[in-house]
Design a protein that fits this description.
The complex is a heterodimer of chains A (251) and B (420).
Chain A (H helix, E strand, L loop, with lengths): L15 E10 L9 E9 L3 E5 L6 H9 L6 E6 L2 E2 L5 H11 E4 L11 H11 L1 H9 L4 H11 L5 H5 L7 H13 L5 E5 L7 H18 L2 E6 L10 E4 H4 L3 H7 L1
Parallel strand pairs in A: 3-8, 3-9, 6-7, 7-8
Antiparallel strand pairs in A: 1-2, 1-4, 4-5
Helix pairs in contact in A: 3-4, 3-5, 3-7, 7-8
Chain B lengths: L1 H12 L1 H33 L7 E5 L3 H8 L10 E2 H8 L4 E13 L2 E6 L2 H5 L1 E2 L3 E2 L2 E4 L7 E4 L1 H7 L6 E2 L2 E2 L14 E7 L9 E5 H7 L17 H5 L7 E2 L1 E6 L5 H9 L6 E4 L1 H44 L1 H9 L4 H42 L10 H32 L6
Helix pairs in contact in B: 1-12, 2-10, 2-12, 2-13, 10-12, 10-13, 11-13, 12-13
The chains are: A alpha/beta (251), B alpha+beta (420).
């Protein structure tokens, strides 16, 4: 699938991880427009904070970046790949290979162990598996290394059913899973909103460290503006999204 | 493979519902294959009741009726065959052997069959098996009786016991041949056929116990003839009920049959046992097919149970699907995951069902053989049974398509976050 499209169109930097131009989206024909983004550019290695209240088009933007949905009009380019030009199977592969996700809660599959949960991306992507094996002898060793980096050191903790872990522990397991196999892009959707305020910052710092180590770009989405100072740059959806619906939500 | 493991772990996570689904599938498979096995074996043992006999001779009547009273000891003959006709047929050059059968008496609910030694030498059942004795031997004396295994077992008879034969099929005191008791001299080995449920005496004995009867009724007072005196009288049979015929060459069967049917002095019928058996099975077959139909319905109900369980689990599993999608699973994976679950459930259900069947067969084999005379072979699955199992698996997969497609649609719509 790579090579199917020219990697870098003229007038753009190879450091663009995400590049969106004149993008619009509505869920169904005749329904109000949810997103209208004239331009959005994120560079490699950036730690971006995207701030938006619910209804501002956050989830929609993330679904577009994940390649789960396609824009109505406009370009969406992730890691040099025009997602709007890929087929659905190619987009699924692209997501599996290059993007890690952490959600607000319920990130883990309840019937799998901690390590099995962390290793899930390697089951669906050869690239992630090979990259995970680059620095470790086995997939399990790499999973344990990541968990250790994220302060999940207690061996008894790893043997417990994931549903019995605290929310903070679950979020760290989810982070380890998003990071395994070093995806180029890590998207975190309100990952701290179910954590205590003092735990939020430490979790975000751990995430930063691991993103830096893996060379991943971090896109962090939240409605909690107090986290803003920790990041390189902040984008306010209410400012960049011109759609009427989003403005109403803001108002 | 990865997906199948995932499907399996997911199932284990919901083991209570999964177990119930599994149970309903295994029991329906147990029923289906069990009924099929019983059907085959019943047909087999039915066809095994008589073998080696080329023609059955009787007075003119229906094919099935003649088969029923001559072989299965069910129902009554409408007419007899005169002794002269019997001897004429027996003397036909193509006839190798002939077994006379005289019916009409009973003993405590079991038929008494008047015959001669040829019954013990020529009668064949099953795969060409002749009659064998568990104890004693054939009748020799006029008042000797041989009893079937079931008769001996249920009435507790031993060699030397006295047996009083009753006139007709019902055992009422005024119609007993109490003055001429018989002595048990032989007990037959169990055969699993109607042979087990009968008593055997000589044709002369039948004649002797009726020698003083007049017009089908007991002798008038003062005119009865004692047992000892009857021995001295002419005991040539006057009539018999039916006869089993073996020919020297099978190829002559139709020729002999035609000659018997055209016998000028008395209206007679000769039937081919194989043809009559399949006609009779055609009648029984309706019930048997109904049984199979019911068990097929039970399998369908079991699979619908699985469908319900799968469909109702989908809503609570939407989050699970969304997580899988976020780590790289395609909607096709989600489809395969549910299919894998349906496959795992049906396969495990079918295997458990077959295991249960063998457990049941093994533990009830003797009971069934004893009570119904059906010998259930402890063999592996027949090609037909394997085909039935294959159909169940196929049906399971087909049933799995609906929830799988629904999960596929849901995961397409939900993407990575659930919009309820």
């Amino acid at each position: 699938m790579e090579g199917a499209v020219p990697k870098h169109a003229p007038g753009q930097s190879p450091d663009n991880v995400i590049r969106i131009r004149d993008l619009t989206f509505r869920w169904k024909l005749g329904m109000p427009q949810v997103l209208d983004l004239p331009s959005l550019v994120i560079d490699r290695g950036e730690r971006i904070f995207i701030e938006g209240a619910s209804g501002s088009g956050k989830s929609t933007l993330l679904s577009l970046l994940a390649g789960v949905i396609l824009p109505e009009r406009g370009e969406i380019q992730v890691l040099g790949e025009r997602l709007d030009r890929l087929g659905s199977v190619q987009r699924d592969h692209f997501r599996a290979h290059h993007i890690g996700f952490v959600f607000q809660m319920f990130n883990l599959i309840p019937y799998l162990s901690v390590v099995e949960n962390v290793l899930l991306p390697c089951r669906f992507s050869d690239q992630r598996r090979l990259r995970a094996l680059r620095d470790a002898d086995s997939l399990e060793a790499e999973a344990l290394r990541l968990l250790r980096q994220l302060d999940m050191t207690d061996a008894t903790l790893l043997r417990r059913p994931v549903t019995s872990l605290s929310v903070g522990q679950q979020q760290r397991v989810a982070a380890a899973r998003a990071l395994i196999g070093a995806p180029a892009l890590l998207i975190a959707d309100e990952p701290t909103s179910s954590l205590d305020s003092d735990r939020r910052e430490s979790f975000i710092r751990l995430l930063f460290d691991e993103c830096a180590r893996a060379g991943s770009t971090l896109v962090f989405v939240s409605h909690d503006a107090s986290l803003e100072p920790l990041f390189n740059r902040t984008l306010r959806l209410s400012e960049i999204n011109r759609s009427a619906a989003a403005r109403r939500a803001e108002g | 493979m990865q997906l199948l493991i995932l499907a399996w772990k997911s199932l284990l996570n919901r083991r209570a519902t999964a177990l119930l689904t599994l149970l309903s599938i295994s029991f329906s498979v147990l029923l289906l294959v069990g009924v099929e096995r019983l059907r085959t074996e019943a047909r087999e043992s039915f066809a095994n009741t008589i073998s080696g006999t080329d023609l059955i001779l009787g007075a003119r009547s229906g094919t099935v009726q003649l088969l029923l009273y001559s072989v299965f000891h069910i129902g009554d003959a409408t007419n007899n065959i005169s002794w002269k006709s019997y001897q004429d047929i027996a003397a036909m050059p193509r006839v190798d052997w002939i077994i006379p059968i005289a019916l009409g008496d009973s003993h405590r609910g079991f038929r008494v069959i008047g015959t001669d030694q040829s019954y013990f030498t020529h009668y064949r059942h099953g795969r060409n098996q002749s009659l064998t004795f568990a104890r004693g031997g054939p009748f020799q004396d006029l008042y000797d009786v041989v009893v079937g295994a079931e008769v001996a077992k249920s009435l507790g008879y031993h060699l030397g016991d006295a047996v009083v034969v009753a006139h007709g099929a019902s055992d009422v005191s005024f119609a007993r041949h109490a003055d001429k008791p018989f002595r048990v001299v032989g007990i037959l080995e169990r055969s699993g056929t109607p042979l087990d449920r009968a008593l055997y005496v000589s044709l002369q004995a039948i004649e002797a116990i009726h020698v003083d009867w007049r017009n089908g009724g007991p002798p008038p007072p003062g005119q009865s003839i004692p047992a000892g005196q009857a021995r001295e009288m002419d005991l040539t049979p006057r009539a018999i009920t039916a006869a089993l015929i073996g020919l020297k060459a099978r190829i002559a069967t139709f020729q002999v049959q035609r000659r018997i049917n055209e016998y000028p002095e008395e209206p007679l019928t000769a039937i081919l046992p194989g043809v009559a058996l399949s006609q009779l099975w055609g009648l029984v077959g309706v019930a048997e097919n109904a049984l199979l139909l019911v068990s097929v319905c039970v399998v369908i109900v079991g699979l619908i149970g699985m469908l319900t369980a799968l469909l109702s689990s989908l809503n609570e599993r939407r989050r699970e699907m969304a997580i899988l999608r976020s780590v790289g699973a395609r909607p096709a994976h989600v489809f395969a995951l549910i299919m894998g679950e349906a496959f795992a459930l049906t396969t495990t259900g079918a295997l458990t069902g077959v295991a249960l069947l063998y457990a049941v067969l093994f533990s009830t084999r003797q009971l069934i053989e004893y009570r119904f005379g059906i010998h259930l072979a402890q063999t592996g699955l027949s090609a037909h049974e394997l085909m039935l199992l294959g159909l169940v698996l196929l049906a399971g997969l087909l049933v799995g398509i609906l929830p799988s497609y629904r999960a596929y649609r849901l995961s397409l719509a939900d993407g990575l976050s659930i919009r309820v």
